[in-house]
């Protein structure tokens, strides 16, 4: 039966009103309706359901649901278990099913994918930092011995990428740098093995953060940003130090490195929710490396009045004691780094004196008259005693 033009015109307002209602339900926009929109909803409800829609309160609040004879037609307030309550409206039922599917996809795929994307800058900076630190330890020549061709395309691509990155690394390794610019507080070479350890701790931390339950965050945005920034600054410092020659100490070694412990310790200063050993070790060692760079600048930089090795070493010990040893609440990682670093300084100094003098007695006599040596011994004793804080508390109680 065909409708007359007049009948069609009478049905059009109801049709548009119903469409308006569906759009409101679909996009969850319930806070911007005016009183005229409410009247249209009431008229539409009477035409479709023969019952009015009762609003529990003003539409200005997003937390109040629409009611249909004390049954929720649509609610913006999440309920326990489900976000929406089933309705008799077929369109609402379809919408609920679609939203449930979206929620499942978000739970098992989208949220995890977005978390990986969120960690991508930190992972990329970690990869470059780990590679550059390894090259600085082994030397660029050892890397160039890697075969440039490989059987598989993936290994060939990785080898090509490593060779490209190695082009930015200078010829000076960490061991060569310590030989060109020796100081009385330079640690032994085994202490610098902590760089790969820092990279490994970062990788484990990032992996845990990616696989952590999605209802919570292991690393928040600030912690990820501080890790990425610290890695970039460390890469800059390693590249700068690799360009050093026997007559030139790059200025970037002094101005870049102090920013690393300041940035990486931001989560530690602001009391992060979880214990983060990667941040603790990273901050502790770069603090020591910063003051070692200051000592190198004072003794070999040439941009400031040069001082003797004893003055340079005493400056390092004073700064390190004030910033690391004198801190009241130190983590276990920081205590271990202090002991290993100061022990490495004493070991290298003893071995160098023993190699120069040729006898134990002469080495001991030459070290006895060194103020910086006794200062290093005192700092090492201080750091070693803090490895066992329980004994100190028991002695204080007695």
Tell me about this structure.
Helix content is 67%, strand content 2%. It has 398 residues and is mostly helical. It has two domains: 15-79, no CATH class; 105-138 and 170-387, no CATH class. The chain has a three-stranded antiparallel beta sheet, with no helix packed on it. Helix 12 (277-301) runs antiparallel to helix 13 (309-325) and helix 12 runs parallel beside helix 14.
Number of helices: 17
Taking the sheet with the most strands, its summary is: 3 strands, antiparallel
Find the count of extended strands (DSSP E, 2+ residues): 3
Low-confidence stretches: 1-13, 20-39, 48-82
| SS content category | mainly alpha
Determine the N-to-C terminus distance: 104 Å
Element pattern in H and E: HHEEEHHHHHHHHHHHHHHH
Shape: elongated
How many domains?
A: 2
Pick out its properties.
2 domains; 2% strand; mainly alpha; three-stranded antiparallel beta sheet; 398 residues; 17 helices; 3 strands; 67% helix
Summarize the entry for a quick read:
The protein has helices at 5-27, 35-49, 90-138, 140-144, 153-166, 174-180, 194-211, 221-242, 252-255, 259-264, 266-269, 277-301, 309-325, 332-357, 360-368, 371-385, 389-397; strands at residues 54-55, 66-68, 71-74. With 398 residues, it is mainly α.
